[in-house]
Amino acid sequence: MTEFREKYGNWALIAGAAIGLGESFCVALAKKGINLFMIDNREEQLMNLSGKLAKEYGIHTMPFCIDLFQTDAVEQIMAKISAIEIRLMIYVAAFSQIKKFENYTFDDLEHYININVATPVKLVHAFSTRLIAQKQSVGILLMSSLAGLLGMQYIVPYAASKAFTWNLAESLHYELKPFKIDVMACIAGATATEAYLGTNPKYGFIKPQVQQPSDVAELALRKIGKRALFIPGFSNRLNYFILTRILPRKMASYFANKTMEKMYSENV
User: Fold this and answer.
1) Residue-wise burial string across 136-165, b where 16 or more C-beta atoms lie within 10 A, e elsewhere
2) How far is Cα 202 from Cα 53, in angstroms, rounded to an integer?
3) Residues 186-231 pLDDT 10s
4) Torsion sign (Cα): 229, 232, 236, 237
5) End-to-end CA distance of the chain
6) β-strand 88-91 against 35-40: which pairing, if any?
7) What totals of helices (H) and strands (E) does the chain contain, helices first?
8) Alpha-carbon dihedral of residues 206, 211, 213, 215, nearest 10 degrees?
9) What residue numbers bound the domain in which 92 lies?
10) Alpha-carbon distance 218 to 148, whole Å?
């Protein structure tokens, strides 16, 4: 715990903090004695979790209720943290729907663009630029997904946005390393969050390993600073190896999309 705090400081920013993986990151960091700047648009859940963690672990929490869809979200966030030394940022927030591409509205697509692409890239830029000159260790952890590995039907803009996150983190891992800024993408598979379970997936012969969000968060925090990309779970790493190292991409894409068809064709 002490080593982690010495490297990344006493405060962490978590975007998408109120439920699911974001909540699990907050709990994992609170256990390490790290104070939390918690961002979410679910005010009731955010306030409840903030108070609970402050009381249970004796840490400081600062909840900030904002919709990351807003075009000025990053400016508001950076203004809020201007007086706090935060050297660890975790972006978990994501917009996701199971839907045929033809049925998306422009508003749906704007949510994908803003929450999954525009806000995280602008926040990473603002956060890292602010800290480059300080020459202290900094951590930036971005949640991605195995859905970004291949083009996936029924989650088209989500898969595309998660591929963007993956490449953003990998690129910055090398570019920002000389400034002591550790950037990593955690590429999760199926995770037992409210959002995933709420899609009511139907499994056929192939059933993905469904991990607990607390396990994903704990494992990701252990790996930041050690690699650019991290896939939690042996089964997920094995699937990644098969899909990228053994099967031709055309075949890998076929099997992945047949799995998606089995899971969601009745729901879309």
Assistant:
1) ebbbbbbbbbbbbbbebbbbbbbbbbbbbb
2) 35
3) 999 888 888 877 778 887 656 677 889 999 999 999 999 999 999 9
4) positive
5) 45
6) unpaired
7) 11, 7
8) -160
9) 2-264
10) 22
How many Cα atoms are found within 13 Å in the side-chain-facing hemisphere of 152?
A: 27
pLDDT at 111: 97
Q: For position 157, what pLDDT does the model report?
A: 96
For 184, phi then psi, to 5°, come to -145, 140
Domain containing residue 229: CATH number: 3.40.50.720
The encoded tokens of residue 119 equal: 């806000």
Spans of the chain, pLDDT less than 50: none
Helix then strand then coil, in percent of the chain rounded to 5, is: 55, 15, 30
Which among 123, 120, 125, 196 has a CA at the least distance from the CA of 165?
Answer: 120
The one-letter amino acid at 22: G
The amino acid present at 175, given as its one-letter code, is E
State how many domains the chain has: 1
Per-residue confidence (pLDDT) for residue 1, from 0 to 100? 64
Q: pTM of this prediction?
A: 0.94
- Outline where DSSP puts E strands in the chain: 11-15, 35-40, 61-65, 88-91, 138-145, 181-188, 229-230
What is the C-alpha separation between 52 and 58, in angstroms, rounded? Answer: 10
Q: How many residues does the chain have?
A: 268
